[in-house]
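Hi support team,

I'm filing this because I wasn't sure whether my run with uracil finished correctly. The job status page said complete, but I'd like someone to confirm that the output block is well-formed before I use it downstream. Pasting the exact inputs I used:
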Amino acid sequence: MQVTWEMLEDAVSDCRGCVLCQTRQHVVLGEGSRNADVMFVGEGPGQQEDEQGRPFVGPAGQLLDKMLAAIGLDRSVVYIANIVKCRPPHNRVPEAFEQNACLPYLRAQFVLVRPKILVCLGATAAKAVIRPDLRITRERGIWVDKKGTQILPTYHPSALLRDETGEKKREAWQDMKALRDRMKEMGIYPGQEVEADG
Ligand code: URA
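And here is everything the job wrote out:
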């Protein structure tokens, strides 16, 4: 049976699939265009996301907004989700069993949105979506084709906020330009050209 958004929202809203439900304030399913060609996947909600029930609204989210704006996009044209839908205490990396409990929700989101491009933000998302032994520092920027979906692993915005040398920021900017160029090649770029250099 084809899952609907309503079924998914219903199931997620009172999910007790793992221990993260015990400490959450809100489940954070995702947001953006349900017809998006590009879907971003992060790790899991942080404090502000947990408080508001929306993904990427804290400092990392503000940086993600800027990264999108730098290539002429905004949240309304992409879809944004996370590997786990409930905040891990103290923002720790979600455990494998927590990720596994939550992955069916991400799969359902993927089936409903049908994005052509999936951008994995950070190691947790890239490992869960691409390969468990992926190394984000070595493999960021390298596109992977999975059953016709183009997948781009890149750094998590939180890692960019901690980046002291600026090297990761430069690499992430390369990745965003590569995303924009791939969207143009695929004829799915809705953005306005903006001249930004990092
Ligand atoms: N970090 C994430 O991985 N996801 C969010 O929604 C916010 C911060």
